[in-house]
Amino acid sequence: MTEAYIYDAVRTPRGKGRKDGALHEVTAARLSAQVMNALKDRNGLEGHAVEDVIWGNVTQVMEQGGCLARTAVLASDLDESIPGLAINRFCASGMEAVNLAANQVKGGAGEAYIAGGVEMMGRVAMGSDGAAIAVDPSIAMDTYFVPQGVSADIIATEYGFTRDQADALAVESQNRAAAAWKANRFEKSVITVKDQNGLTILDHDEYMRPGTDMQALGALNASFQQMGEVMPGFDAVAKLKYPHLEKINHIHHAGNSSGIVDGSAGVLIGNAEFGKKYGLKPRARIRQTCKIGTDPTIMLTGPVPATQKILADSGMNISDIDLFEVNEAFASVVLRFQQAFDVDPDLVNVNGGSIAMGHPLGATGAIIIGTLLDELERSDKEVGLATLCIASGMGAATIIERV
User: Fold this and answer.
1) Is residue 389 annotated as part of the catalytic site, yes or no?
2) Is the model's pLDDT at 350 over the cut of 90?
3) Which of these is catalytic: 48, 91, 244, 290?
4) CA 2, CA 108: separation in Å to the nearest integer?
């Protein structure tokens, strides 16, 4: 089978995802186009250089509706002969775009792809698509639906994680992100977002809160306790599904959960012939991809079975992985991953994660693949694994290997 290589990976800085955020006036298509233009310009792409653009985003309504991938291609400097495919695997949409592109290349369906995603959470509100799993009673009741924040608290309760543990992970994420930015560890991948006049709008992750400490986090109220215990009473739903849990321990809040932000990211993937054609040197090969369904109520445990599956599929052990990127949707997701595999925390999210820098839903999967690649190169390590939890109970993972 043909190898699929990563030739380049870029992302925008992550904006605050609010009306006062730097990226608020930029549309999803225009932000995506800047990422596509960067990949085109940095790699000298011309004409029908790639077979397709596969682009993930989660809330596919309003400006993110239709086939956003094709809209973004037309808004970019890419040739109009390049089509676009919009996909949605919730929080793993950006990763699934990369994985799908890689497997298309491996199967011989084209020499190269641009893949990634976008989410403008300050412009298109999360949940505004009215997803059936949440709003259709006949489905929500059958699946014991609860919101993700309650699911994160169920994980904490089921696996014994305390608020102090969650807050400590959040403080570490902030410290690592601040240190990474100070050391310019993101400079290879982060592009500057500019307005139509070429003026800089944003050149750094805007959401970070350097200096966050345990005392500051300790003053925050649990974000999901009211919806769990009072109205609409999702704790009761959870206990119907998991009767062994006497009480849900609500440990998550704004400081140890991922930030609502705007952002986009893209990866250039191709075979060896594509690299030769454009004089490009591959940075890594995509060794294995996977996706899996999991319990839809606790919902966010997917990184564990996804990692088990991808290791089995590739004939590898957890000890064969040098670095991990586990999306920090909520602190308990990462704590559960570390607990399940007994991995060294110093190898997980080395440069911080979504708690510190934010989680632009459709882009994050592509962001963490690029971050993983950069860190493998910086630290001179060989093999990395990226994985995410996914709404409604799924998991996805990607293993990359430097070449």
Assistant:
1) yes
2) yes
3) 91
4) 7
